[in-house]
Amino acid sequence: MSATTIDPYASSTAPAGRFLYRLNPLAKLGAPLPVMILLAFTRDPVTPALFIALAVVVILVGASLTRTVALLLFVALPLIVTIMSFSFGLWTDPSRVDQSVLLFQVGDYRFFLGALLVGLATALRLAALLVLACIGGLTSTGPEFVRAMIQQLHVPYRIGYTALAAYRFVPRFGHELEVIRSAHRVRGMAEGRGPIAAVRRAAGTVVPLLAGAIRHAERVALAMDSRAFGAHPQRTERTRIPFRTRDWCFMVAFWLVSAALLWWSLSAGPGLVIRN
Amino acid sequence: MRIRHDEREEWTPDDVSFQVSPGEVVLLLGPSGSGKSTLALALNGLVPHAVPAEFEGAVVTGGLDTATSTVAQLSEHVAMVFQDPDAQIVTGTVLDEVCFGPENLLLPADEVLSRAERALRQVGLWERRTENPDRLSGGGRQRLAIACALAMGSDLLVLDEPTANLDPAGIEEVYAALRSLVSGPEGAGKRHAILLVEHNLDAAIDLVDRVVVLDRDGRLAFDGPTRDVLLGHLDELLEMGVWLPVATLAALRLREGGVLLPDLPLTPAELTAALDGTALPTPPTAPVAPVTTESSVAVRVDQLSVERGRGRRRTPILHEVSLEVGTGDFLAVIGTNGAGKTTLLQAIAGVVRPPRGRIDVGGIDPGRSDVRTIAAHIGFVFQNPEHQFIAHTVHDELAHGLRIRGVDDTETERRVDDLLRRFGLESARDVHPFLLSGGQKRRLSVGSALIAGAPVLALDEPTFGQDRARANELLDLLAGLNAQGTTVLVVTHDLQLVADHASHVAVMAGGHLLAHDTTAAILGDDELLRRAGLRPPPLAQAMRSLANHPDWQHLSRLDDLPGAAAR
Amino acid sequence: MQRLSTRLLLTCAAIGVGGGLVFVVSGYVGGTISATAPVLYGLIIGVYFLPGVVSQALLRRGGVALMTGLTAGLVSAAFSPQWFFRYFGTGLAIGLLQEIPFAVSRYRVWRAWVFYLAAGIAGLVFGGSVLVVLGIEHFAPLAQTVYIALFVLSPIAFTALGRAVAAALARAGVGRSIAKPLQRDRGSAGTRA
Ligand SMILES: Nc1ncnc2c1ncn2[C@@H]1O[C@H](COP(=O)(O)OP(=O)(O)OP(=O)(O)O)[C@@H](O)[C@H]1O
Ligand SMILES: Nc1ncnc2c1ncn2[C@@H]1O[C@H](COP(=O)(O)OP(=O)(O)OP(=O)(O)O)[C@@H](O)[C@H]1O
Ligand SMILES: [Mg+2]
Ligand SMILES: [Mg+2]
């Protein structure tokens, strides 16, 4: 983890031509939100799978396929779903699942296909939530999101701009951490390997790190105050993050498609089954 | 006006009155802790509105009483530039940054932009408006801070040590920008009044119209035109321990050595002129640097290359640096910001793990030794003392170095007590290191590097942000250690300090070692200094330009001048 | 919102940035846990309480946990954009939950027990909602108990940790000028406009 590797202001990374980057971050959050909430209450594997497919399609069409995205969607996701299906399956109560097909048995413990299916459903549900969130997450930057919160959700701008200023603390934090760690190392603070020494080392760096950060923050606050920060209930916004027709279109379209998928899965598919 | 910080006994500043007229440049001087920064904060109402402090008296700026106006209202009359450029940047691009203030004032967007453009053009940053401020140099970021202040449209600019973090080139940039503000052609724009707090008088002096001096207790000591105050009250100023222009110190020194100059000079150019107009004795033969003949080597660096960062961001920082430091040398490492000075020093002291087999400190290789062994051979003092504090009291902080080496308790106590006494820290024995004053923190960090008895001491910018008295105190301490045989390595931007104290100098530029030689040889080489992006120290500048006294031209140290130390 | 000085806001932001970096680390640990031993997921949930607790214990003012949680969420999300809403939502939600018990006393009581009670309740609420998503009804009874217990215990443990950090910071003189004094003395209020 290297704190210096991110530039939260790198908004120019947005490739032209891909529509997701040109939408308001709130639209990209609002579109999948209702279905994310509904998904939490589903218990079958098909419905989340449908929405995973939907989200993947939207991302593939609307966002550029970087290495990270490709790895996430096509390697990490299937892997996580597989592992989770088993681990959740292992933890389910065997007496509450369909016991018709026995997959394997270790001593007294019997692993049924039913348990695996329950695990699969859970894993797919979590994966669906993750991928749906990715629609907005992968295609908007933090600062854009903060600006949208200020402009559309009317979050007080003093809070929003404080959060923006906080992005500037991140690389500084990383750098300070590095310096403090090496300073403590050469002074022979909690030498040795193993978790206990590691915890003691970490504990020793927390105070200087936070103390330095807070003192820096106080200086930044003075600089902001002396530039009239908070003078008026509003401030001039030069960078508008408008909520346009296309944002509405995207949201409504997404809702409609979601509703259709849900309805289909309810009526024709295994349905919004809540087992008891 | 007087101010007392919460939880403090003393008033700093105490009972101070003065005024700044439009278009005037006022320099505020005073020893560390006299309340200069506090006073500056009071001018736009940050004291008492944002900083908890008791405030008596009144400050009126632009017709507004700071006690009854908000900081925001005052910001249109008084703009601030602080010491640390990084602590003033809030947004992601240069343009956004300058717009930040006017936007807060709720000005219409086109007015915001036109103000921003004007301000950026004034400091010469308009071309770089789309860049991330992090990409600017230190001097560039500080010019950006000045532009931000200008964009507020205020008549008074308050700058608190604006160049303390910068290399000589950056300092020049900042003062060039300031100079164009006050001395631009009449009618080219509004002439701003400036209140300046600054330690580096040599850079600032030709800009200043008037000087206001606070004494150690924060009271107003002097207030008057630059020359009257600085030259009229020299002895008191020396006594207070505030910084003075090097040219003036040199002239004082000469006066005691029997060379009387008709007018005391303030700038190198004035010193040159005064000396050229006077008959001078042959300069005292420079005392031959004492023990350099000794051949033993304390630190040997051989073809050292260092890379930092991880993965794709891994970049080489030092390129095949080779260097030998003799035992008992006082080596100064100089260079511009980012030249690799800190990295070199840290590699030598094993702070960043150097590659194996490249460095030898008193027979050990910091690349493969454990911490205890390294600590016994070389002590390292970080630029920010707080980074290296690991204990909860001053006493434990000093004892730590001994404890991890298994020194027994009575011996530890004896040595800690001894060091506390030597560094004047007895009364702070049980205080948390973070609660010490800046000067005390610095002494403690030197003490904790020393206590293990290492024969080599490495310090990163030890005099940064200290007043003259404190800096001298520390340098005397180092000189004392050096005289007893400790090899001292310092990284510094203060070339006059280098000239006065170092026996040898290593010049870094872009990760390469440009040169390593005796101080006189390096500081005498203008071409070399220019290539490294540096300037000759003020005294050398003055001497170099002498027309009538060729035998004085090579001088660069105050100690080379006839007369006793004028400290 | 004028009640919160810029100083206070930025101090919270600084603590939040620290918290955010801890979130990122715990995010990887948490990912591993939920993939392999989902019942133990509650173990790391306490991490999300850290920034809020540190700021509340250090500054003793209303709104600080929310502000800290918000920054922590945003910052950690910047590292793992694919989890933007996971971090952001968690940071914000827990910050909000942490405000409630203190808001009930109108930010007058800052005793230790309130912190622990708050942590326990918030853990329960949070564990409950994650529980719906995971479909806990399929879990064996033992697993259910362990699961919920961890969701309560972990926040309490991390609250203790956060309070220790805040105490160490206070000892080093950090945040003194903006912290609300322990013994309330009304005389010195009003230094800020
Ligand atoms: N926020 C604060 N809280 C409490 N005391 C403070 C605070 N800031 C400054 N002081 C104290 O007030 C006095 C004046 O400090 P100030 O920073 O104004 O001095 P200064 O003249 O600017 O010193 P320097 O040259 O070191 O910058 C000092 O004793 C300092 O310790
Ligand atoms: N950990 C690191 N990772 C990546 N780059 C680094 C790291 N540390 C330093 N650098 C870079 O290496 C270069 C040299 O840094 P260094 O701190 O040695 O310079 P310096 O000469 O001490 O400068 P200054 O006068 O500003 O202190 C700089 O460009 C810096 O950005
Ligand atoms: Mg100061
Ligand atoms: Mg350096």
Descriptive overview:
The complex is a heterotrimer of chains A (276), B (567) and C (193). Helices cover 63% and strands 3% of the residues of chain A. Chain A has nine helices and two strands, in the order ααααββααααα. Chain B contains 22 helices and 19 strands. Helix content of chain C is 70%, strand content 0%. Chain C has helices at 6-36, 42-45, 50-59, 64-79, 84-104, 112-134, 141-171. The chains are: A mainly alpha (276), B alpha/beta (567), C mainly alpha (193). The interface between A and C is large, with 69 and 59 residues. The complex binds adenosine-5'-triphosphate (ATP) (2 copies) and magnesium ion (2 copies). Residues 341-342, 460, 491 of chain B line the site of one magnesium ion (MG).
Most strands sheet of chain A = 2 strands, antiparallel
In percent, how helical is the residue content of chain A? 55-70%
Order of helices and strands of chain C: HHHHHHH
Rg calculated over all Cα atoms of chain A:
24 Å
Oligomer: heterotrimer
Which class best fits the helix and strand makeup of chain C? mainly alpha
- Distinct small molecules bound, one entry per kind: adenosine-5'-triphosphate, magnesium ion
CA radius of gyration of chain C = 17 Å
Low-pLDDT runs of 5+ residues of chain C are 184-193
Shape of chain C: globular
Intertermini distance of chain C = 13 Å
End-to-end distance of chain A, in Å? 44 Å
Number of domains of chain A: 2
Order of helical and strand elements of chain A: HHHHEEHHHHH
- The shape of chain A is flat
Major sheet summary line of chain C: none
Sheet-strand content of chain A, in percent, reads under 5%
Most extensive chain interface and residues per partner? A-C, 69 and 59 residues
How would you classify the helix and strand content of chain A by structural class?
Answer: mainly alpha
What is the fold's blueprint, element by element?
The complex is a heterotrimer of chains A (276), B (567) and C (193).
Chain A: H1 25-30, H2 33-39, H3 46-62, H4 67-91, E1 102-106, E2 109-112, H5 113-137, H6 142-151, H7 157-186, H8 194-225, H9 245-267
Antiparallel strand pairs in A: 1-2
Helix pairs in contact in A: 3-5, 3-9, 4-5, 6-7, 7-8
Chain B: E1 2-5, E2 25-29, H1 36-43, H2 46-49, E3 53-56, E4 60-61, E5 64-65, H3 71-74, E6 78-81, H4 94-104, H5 109-123, H6 138-151, E7 156-160, H7 168-183, E8 193-197, H8 201-204, E9 210-214, E10 220-225, H9 226-232, H10 234-240, H11 246-256, H12 268-276, E11 297-308, E12 315-326, E13 330-334, H13 341-348, E14 359-361, H14 371-377, E15 378-381, H15 394-403, H16 409-422, H17 438-450, E16 456-460, H18 468-483, E17 487-491, H19 495-501, E18 504-509, E19 512-518, H20 519-523, H21 526-531, H22 538-544
Chain C: H1 6-36, H2 42-45, H3 50-59, H4 64-79, H5 84-104, H6 112-134, H7 141-171
Bound molecules: adenosine-5'-triphosphate (2 copies) and magnesium ion (2 copies).
Keywords (chain A): Membrane, Transmembrane, Transmembrane helix
Main location (chain A): membrane
InterPro entries (chain A): ABC/ECF_trnsptr_transmembrane
